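4.2 Preliminary Data

To establish feasibility before requesting continued support, the project team ran the inverse folding procedure on a target of 348 residues. The structure was first converted into the token representation described in Section 3, and no sequence information of any kind was made available to the design step. The complete token record follows.
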């Protein structure tokens, strides 16, 4: 079968590999759609970050690995011992590898596992292929009201909902989202579902800023004004919670400054470089700085919200391509076309 494999930074190859089998405890899925994540792009430009160059203790795999962890599909076969799904089921995948034995796992926080990995980043297979054999405990069924395209957005939407849930945001609070790429837009949706009163979106790209406006955010163009001063002016001192979703070092400082006294900044993005900040920016106003990685215990809630109309694919997906086009039109396209939001790749 065809599969996109990561061999090194700047080295992706669409190759023919052996089709996986539904071994014991696994589910064979015919891939329908897979989204290109910012993490995938980071691996392409500056990896390895999550990709193991030595055998990963949980996946048992190492580079070269098949990429793709935001995907949906149809079950075509189940392995021995699998009773939770059957052939024909429509599914999405929660791709976290966790050991189940470390302190974090024993506390139910598998996304903080000491050996954390992701299916499609740490090996085992991936969504940029025709088929994947996925551990059964990663599988979530999709209701008929949630399309396969929506199913490919469940994973990134889970990041956004986890960020909103882990924050101090309360119903009626004001929030700011710095960066409205795919995750930033999904954070806006998660904040709406969480009861935020006003959501300010800071974005350089005109198209991405328009997408944020379509989702109901109050948009700010940092090319036209100082976003920190603008937010402070409009909110009488700053927002309750700011979400940094760019991974650009200077923006982290802006996000902190945009919060009020005792405000909180949530770091959602993955940084390739260090981001210097002055401790006084936090200390003098008793602000807090918090980070999140991935998600936990939110997939069912995301799927339920999607069934209610949240996280709409028609407003978030800007390009649909085939697996044959994934390198040039997908990864290279995202590097060249900065206005793209979410690109979905069709395996068929």
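Position-by-position output of the design step:
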């Amino acid at each position: 079968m065809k599969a996109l494999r990561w061999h090194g930074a700047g080295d992706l190859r669409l190759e023919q590999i052996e089709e996986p089998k539904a071994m014991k405890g696994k589910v064979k899925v015919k891939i329908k759609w897979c989204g290109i994540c910012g993490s995938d792009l980071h691996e392409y430009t500056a990896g390895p970050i999550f990709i193991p160059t030595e055998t990963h203790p949980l996946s048992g795999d190492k580079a070269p690995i098949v990429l793709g962890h935001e995907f949906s599909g149809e079950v075509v076969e189940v392995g021995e011992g699998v009773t939770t799904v059957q052939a024909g089921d429509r599914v999405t995948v929660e791709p976290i590898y966790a050991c189940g034995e470390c302190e974090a796992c024993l506390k139910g926080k598998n996304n903080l596992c000491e050996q954390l990995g992701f299916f499609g980043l740490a090996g085992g297979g991936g969504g940029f292929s025709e088929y994947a054999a996925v551990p059964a405990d990663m599988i979530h069924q999709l209701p008929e009201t949630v399309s396969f395209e929506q199913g490919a957005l469940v994973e990134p939407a889970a990041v956004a909902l986890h960020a909103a849930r882990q924050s101090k945001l309360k119903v009626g609070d004001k929030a700011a989202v710095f960066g409205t790429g795919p995750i930033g837009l999904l954070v806006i949706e998660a904040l709406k579902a969480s009861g935020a009163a006003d959501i300010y979106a800071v974005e350089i790209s005109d198209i991405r800023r328009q997408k944020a406006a379509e989702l109901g955010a109050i948009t700010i163009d940092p090319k036209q004004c100082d976003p920190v001063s603008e937010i402070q002016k409009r909110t009488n001192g700053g927002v309750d919670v700011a979400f940094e979703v760019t991974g650009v070092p200077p923006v982290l400082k802006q996000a902190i400054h945009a919060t009020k006294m005792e405000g909180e900044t949530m770091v959602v993005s993955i940084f390739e470089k260090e981001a210097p900040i002055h401790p006084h920016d936090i200390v003098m106003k008793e602000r807090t700085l918090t980070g999140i990685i991935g998600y936990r215990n939110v997939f069912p809630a995301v799927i339920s919200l999607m069934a209610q109309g949240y996280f709409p694919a028609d407003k978030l997906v800007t390009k649909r391509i085939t697996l044959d086009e994934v390198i040039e039109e997908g990864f290279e396209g995202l590097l060249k076309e900065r206005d793209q939001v979410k690109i979905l790749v069709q395996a068929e």
